[in-house]
Design a protein that fits this description.
Layout: H1 5-21, H2 24-30, H3 34-40, H4 45-48, H5 56-81, H6 85-108, H7 120-133, E1 138-139, E2 146-149, H8 150-167, H9 174-195, H10 200-209, E3 217-219
Antiparallel strand pairs: 1-2, 2-3
Helix pairs in contact: 1-5, 5-6, 5-7, 6-7, 6-9, 7-9, 8-9
Length: 221
Amino acid sequence: MHLSITLIIVIITALVSFGGFSNKRLIDDLIFYPPAITRQKQWYRFFTCGLIHADAGHLIFNMLALYLFGEIVEKDFTILFGDKGKLLYILLYVLALFFSLLPTFSKHKNDYYYRSLGASGAVSAVIFSSILFNPLVGIGLFFIPVFIAGFIFGILYLLISQWLEKRGGGNVNHSAHIYGALFGIVFTIVVCQAFSEYPLLQNFIDQILNADPKQFIQFGG
């Protein structure tokens, strides 16, 4: 049985997350805790925090999104970059965990009350990489039969996340969503430029300009 990189990430993350639900010590050892990085140089926390989640709902939401979009991006990378495709896809995910949390680290590096967990920053990077390749593919929320073209969804996602970040409050790290998404865009553009002749941005623009406006918002049954 062939296991994709995406599915392997989902399985490992699910196993570690489920272990953490009943093991507070495991959560404490892996969670993103800025002072532990500042004082004790535990840089691994940038990455290990993506293996744990707050609860089953948090885990399912992230891993379902990763599976749906990651399989597409992994396939696109493999087609475009050949043997390097799998490695570049892994780098997209792993580096997104780090870069999506850098602004959070800068803001909370001496905040002994701050903690963060979950793979949302890396998942955002994968989603936005997928949008670059497929800007017209409809994206919707669970159980709501309305699908918005990916490029419109992306704009709304960033605007809403920015607004929620400025408003503050709650337990969601909206900054990680924003910077994860931006990292996904930049990484995908750079690797396409460096390792292929695929005109990513031109194709992205052409797909939007040549589309039937009815494709921008669709209603499902």
